[in-house]
Amino acid sequence: MSARYLSLSPFFYSTVKPTPVPEPQWIAFNQPLADSLQLPAEIASSEHAAAVSILAGNTVPSWATPFSQAYSGHQFGHFNPTLGDGRAIVLLEAETATGELYDIQLKGAGRTPYSRSGDGRSPIGPVLREYLVSETMHTFGVPTTRALAAVATGGWVRREESAPGAILTRVASSHIRVGTFQYAASQGGKERVQELADYVIQRHYPHLQHAKQPYFELIKTVMQRQARLVSHWMSLGFIHGVMNTDNCSVAGETIDYGPCAFMEQYNAQQVFSFIDKRGRYRYDNQPHIAQWNMARFAESLAELVRLPDETNDALIRRLSELVETFPAMYEAQWLQRFGAKIGLAQPTTADTQLIKDLLSLFAEHAIDFTLGFRYLIGELKEQPEAYATRQLFADPAPFLAWRKQWQQCVGKHAQALMAEVNPVLIPRNHHVEAAIQEAQNKGQLERFHKLLTALQTPFNEQHLGSELAQPANAEEQVTTTFCGT
Question: What is the pLDDT of residues 45-55, one digit of tens each?
Fold first, then answer.
C-alpha cells in the first residue's frame, strides 16, 4: 500500500473543512464507480441518509481529514509561485482491495487557504460539463479523473452573472501535478523535491524504486505518460483548453476539466476557451505544450538527477536531450492512434502521409471530425444505406481519390478495429450547453441524464443517425466555453 498524501510534510497541504451549503440535493451519483472503490458506507450509495450531506461538505465524518494541496504553476506561460487548491478539498484517500489509493475530492466546496480572492465555489454549469466529459473520456479509455457525484448546493454563485451552485465529487489516482513539483523546487528546495519524488515513485511508479537513476527515469516515465495521453486526446478531437503546468497530472491522467470541448468541423487551430485569447492551448498546439510542461517538470527535478561533479551546463544539456525525445514519443503514439482510426493495426511511418492527407481533406471541406472517421467503416461495407464518409462531402471526388489509395492498405479486420476507436457520440457542445441551460434556468435535469446515459455507450452503432450524433447547425453552435472560476 502507498502512504497517504498526509504523510508528506505539511508544506504540501493545509487541512481545511468544507463550507456548509444551504440546501444540498442530488444531481447525480455514479453507483458503478462507487462500487469499484472501497468507500466508507456513508458515501458508498446515494441511498445512505448522510451521503448527500457529506458530499456537499455539510458533514465531516470522523474518518475524514479534509485537506487542500499547495502547488505552483505556469498559467499561460507565466509562473505563479503560490497557487494551490482554491476551491477543491480532498475528503479522503480511498484504498481499494489491491492497495491502490484514490483521492475523493470535493470541487466547489468553499474557500481554502489557497483561494486568494476567490469564493471557492462552482456554478452548476462547469460541474455538469466535467461530469459529462470526464465520464465520456473514461468510456473512451482515456486516463482521466472520474465523476463520483454532483450535488446542487441550494445557493448561488456570482460570476459574470449569478448561477445555481454545485459541488462535484471527483476521483483521481492522485492530484499531484507538475505544479506540485514546481512548488517544491521554488518554495522548498531539493529536500522537498526529493520527498515529493520519492512519494510519487512509491504511489504511482513503484517499479522505479530500484532503478539506477530513479529520478531521471521518473522524468522519462511521466513524459511517456503525457505523450500517450495527449495523442489519445488528439485522436478524439478533444481540446483541454487550459494546459497550465498546474493542470498537468504526473500520473498521466486528464485532470481539471474547465473550458474543454470536442471539436466538430476539423480545424487544427480550433480554440474554445474564453480565456485563451492567443490560442496557446489550441488543438494542434497541445503536443507542443505537453513537451513544454515536461521541460518544466525536468527543471524541477534537476538537482535530484545531477551526477557527481556534473557541471550546470552538462546537467542542462543532459536534461534537454531527454526532453527533446518527447516529439518522437508523441509521434509514435499519434501514428498508432490515428492508424487505428483508419483501420491500420500496425501502421508504419509510411502511413503518416495517408492520415495527414485525410485530415487535410477534412479541413478543406469542413468535415465533422468524429463522423468523418466513424463513417469510414461504411466505406468498407457493401450495403448502399450505410453511413459513409463520402456522404459528408459536397464534392466527394477528392475523397474518393484518397479512398482508392486507402482501400489498398486496410486488411480484413479493419472494420472491427475502427469500430473500437471511432466513437459515434461525443459530448457535443450544443448538447452539453442545452443540458446546462435547462438545469441552470429551469432546475431540470432530464436533458443532462439523457445525455449522460447515451454517452455511456459512445461506440454503439445504434446511435448512428440519432440527434445526439449530429453536429450543431449554424444557430446551435457553441464556440466559447468557460471554466467557472
Answer: 999 999 999 99
